[in-house]
Amino acid sequence: xxAELTIESLSAGYGHVRVLDDVSLHxxxxxxxxxxxxxxxxxxxxxxxxxxxxxxTAGVVRLGGDEITGVPPERLVRRGLALVPEGRxxxxxxxxxxxxxxxxxxxxxxDPLVREDLERVRALFPVLAERGGQPAETLSGGEQQMLAxxxxxxxxxxxxxxxxxxxxxxxxxxxxxxxxxxTLCAEGLTILLVEQDARLALKHADRGYVMRTGSIALHGPxxxxxxxxxxxxxxxxxxxxxxx
Length: 244
Description:
This protein is α/β, with parallel strands linked by helices. Helices cover about 35% and strands about 25% of the residues.
């Protein structure tokens, strides 16, 4: 289901402002890797560069061994890369079911697996089955985030990028979303997660990278980063915690 995502010496920015500087990381198939760091460190910019929304000035991005650097977003979706952006970017007037159909637009019209995937995302997020005919703009914030993840999954990605999926949500909803991510990883999906709540991200991740001012400052197994003194004081409130 998943494909290896590799980023090598990637640099990017906006105009003359360089935001990313020689960033390298990789995510193995079936692995959830967390990218943490302060606001403005370049985490969202990295996801945009990988997802084709921002053209890198240097470096290489590969998915499953194929170079995808600078490939337009619509082609990347067909290749197997999906992004759940910060802010969700749903089609508000469209219903839940219509938004899910949009997620599958890159697939052949008669793809027999679309129905199977629809049932799968409804099983991951049962509330979406209950709200199928409801306009997306009338959902709660948590329901909209579930819909944004489900819509991305409808493209049947090999690698999933998520930008701040817990932002502003209630603990119950966060638990449901991260429980779904755990399930997807167990099924073999490759996931790169940008998350401001570093403790939450590392609790669910296999490995993590710490970004500072556009560069990777530290990386390692999630359990190791949770115990790292620098990480604890900068991002975890100074308290060590191991994964349950």
